[in-house]
DNA sequence: ATGTGATTTGTACTATCGTACAAAAGATCA
DNA sequence: TGATCTTTTGTACGATAGTACAAATCACAT
């Protein structure tokens, strides 16, 4: 209803709608949903507050549209990479390829979408931490299929590990992934400048390397069969 | 100035101040800082909005006091456990003990503080995601020493791994830890009910097991010396 | 050029926010 | 009991939130 596909893009500014989406994405991803006002977004996009209402009706609607824009392409990319990874013969190589297929699209731009997947992934991390309702619904119904596909693929490479353990470890992977995008400066700080937390390529390599090893850890039940648990119990 | 240490605790309700702190902690940890109003907190604590201002002056002051309450004890507990872990002879056992010393206090109650460290850790996760300023300052100056101590201890157990890699992997550990507390229900969902994401003891075991393996992964530089990187490059 | 529909602007409304402050209530001890 | 200090209550104020809506402005087909 909103858009008339004429030869040229209409509107005074070249696609104000996109500018608003980009500004909102950036602000939400760095400050959370509730800390950012519609007026903040409008100002960052060089738009009028009323424009936001016009294009997206409500603030929730704006967030919803951001998700709609990214979920499809990112899942598509992941599916392609996962399919390719599944064809890798060597089991060890395949595991790494599968992990990489999960991680790479989250860090890098989803081909056509401006600004890249990193910003969107960070947004998802923040919304998940805030317990945002709109995000929760979309996420569960959009990403769970993909998550299951990855879990299955990993399970194929590690048939001796119980599925439960795979789920836990892939959960840890997502947490690590999120956190790397949320506070990259912490890596720079703790490494005393020797590492750049914001360097996506490096973060990916580190994450893939660590995660592959984590997946390959022995299963919990059969872990360290004849060794005592050291030092502390886990309940207070 | 505020408190007079008489024989009995004063105030109509048995320690309204504590009730407000507990309510704020819970609400902040589940909804974020900006989504929770002072009135919400007061209502949850069975108090009057004015009481919050009286005890903590501002909303930021309330958050600050929550941090003050927990940072000391949790760091103390971690130091104790870390010291004990350092005394473990076997190098593999020591690594596990060190990781456990880092993880356990974050999941379980800090001995004397009601409600436990899990709630506070979740709060930290959420504040970090929201980029909260008050939290950022406190965190950097309170936890970085502890983080360095742990990184050093882990490096001792794995002298052949570059410090940079250890930093990255401990960053992943913290991310995984945070995420486990932020969305435990995702684990239950993805495991189709076979695992309980909210079971702290189980989460700890899974996290420790996976993390120890991640730390033990070969260093990045020397990783897979004669093998091609499979399938995808890391930049778009 | 002019009318028409899409977009942008400006502004206003109501609700709620954090905070301040005076009055009430409770506790403590001479 | 009455004086004094601490705590709680009730209320109010200015700022800002999300959203609605009419007027102004634009792009474009005729």
UniProtKB/TrEMBL annotation, chains A, B:
Gene3D superfamilies: Tetracycline Repressor, domain 2. SUPFAM superfamilies: Homeodomain-like (SSF46689), Tetracyclin repressor-like, C-terminal domain (SSF48498). GO terms for molecular function: DNA-binding transcription factor activity; transcription cis-regulatory region binding. Keywords: DNA-binding. Residues 14-74 form the HTH tetR-type domain. Residues 37-56 bind DNA. Coiled coil: none annotated. Pfam families: TetR_C_30 (PF17939), TetR_N (PF00440). PANTHER family: BLR6905 PROTEIN, HTH-TYPE TRANSCRIPTIONAL REGULATOR RUTR. This is TetR family transcriptional regulator. It comes from Bradyrhizobium cajani.
């Amino acid at each position: 209803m909103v858009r008339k596909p004429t030869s040229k893009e209409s509107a005074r500014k070249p696609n104000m709608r996109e500018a608003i989406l980009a500004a909102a994405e950036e602000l939400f991803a760095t400050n959370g949903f509730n800390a950012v006002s519609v007026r903040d977004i409008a100002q960052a996009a060089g738009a009028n507050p009323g424009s936001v209402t016009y294009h997206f009706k409500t603030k929730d609607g704006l967030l919803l549209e951001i998700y709609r824009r990214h979920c499809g392409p990112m899942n598509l990319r992941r599916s392609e990479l996962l399919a390719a990874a599944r064809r890798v013969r060597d089991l060890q190589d395949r595991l790494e390829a599968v992990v990489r297929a999960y991680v790479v699209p989250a860090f890098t731009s989803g081909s056509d979408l401006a600004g890249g997947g990193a910003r969107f992934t960070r947004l998802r991390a923040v919304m998940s931490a805030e317990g945002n309702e709109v995000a929760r619904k979309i996420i569960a119904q959009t990403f769970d299929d993909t998550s299951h596909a990855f879990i299955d693929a990993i399970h194929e490479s590690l048939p001796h590990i119980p599925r439960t353990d795979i789920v836990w470890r892939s959960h840890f992977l997502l947490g690590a992934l999120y956190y790397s995008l949320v506070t990259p400066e912490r890596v720079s700080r703790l490494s005393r400048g020797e590492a750049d937390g914001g360097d996506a390529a490096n973060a990916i390599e580190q994450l893939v390397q660590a995660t592959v090893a984590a997946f390959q850890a022995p299963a919990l039940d059969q872990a360290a069969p004849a060794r005592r648990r050291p030092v502390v119990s886990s309940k207070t």
